[in-house]
TrEMBL record:
Keywords: Bacterial flagellum, Cell membrane, Cell projection, Chemotaxis, Cilium, Flagellar rotation, Flagellum, Membrane. GO terms for cellular component: bacterial-type flagellum basal body; plasma membrane. Residues 31-102 form the Flagellar motor switch protein FliN-like C-terminal domain. Belongs to the FliN/MopA/SpaO family. The lineage of its organism: Bacteria, Pseudomonadati, Pseudomonadota, Alphaproteobacteria, Acetobacterales. It is a peripheral membrane protein. One of its GO terms (biological process) is chemotaxis. It is found in: Cell membrane; Bacterial flagellum basal body. Residues 1-28 are annotated as: Disordered. InterPro entries: FliN, FliN-like_C, FliN/MopA/SpaO, FliN_T3SS_HrcQb, SpoA-like_sf. One of its GO terms (molecular function) is cytoskeletal motor activity. This is Flagellar motor switch protein FliN.
Length: 108
């Protein structure tokens, strides 16, 4: 028997109660609320040889595969989940606003 638990087996918030039919409520997911995840916003990618990488110095510009204004990719635990735009949160912090939820795509 496997120790892995399927979230659909949680029943009533994992208290051993039989699973109820009908729509799931937020209370049913309480068991996963405190699980940490890693969120990454990828502006773009570049490929270069190690010799080129070693020549980079302060102020060097690395050209990415995206155009200005193009949506960025948002990953959760290395899985593409959304696309969005970079926004300024305050005078010295950046954030991301989601503009599109991506379903069924894997990182490339």
């Amino acid at each position: 028997m496997s120790d892995a638990m399927d979230l659909t087996d949680l029943g009533d918030a994992g208290n051993g109660a039989p699973e109820q039919s009908g729509p799931r409520s937020a209370r049913d997911l309480e068991a996963v609320y405190d699980i940490p995840v890693t969120v990454s916003a990828v502006l773009g990618k570049a490929t270069m040889q190690v010799s080129q990488l070693l020549k980079l110095g302060r102020g060097a510009v690395v050209e990415l595969d995206r155009k200005l204004g193009e949506a960025i990719d948002i990953y959760v635990n290395n899985r593409l989940v959304a696309r969005g735009e970079v926004v300024m949160v305050d005078d010295n912090r950046l954030g991301v606003t989601m503009t599109e939820i991506v379903k069924g795509e894997r990182p490339g």
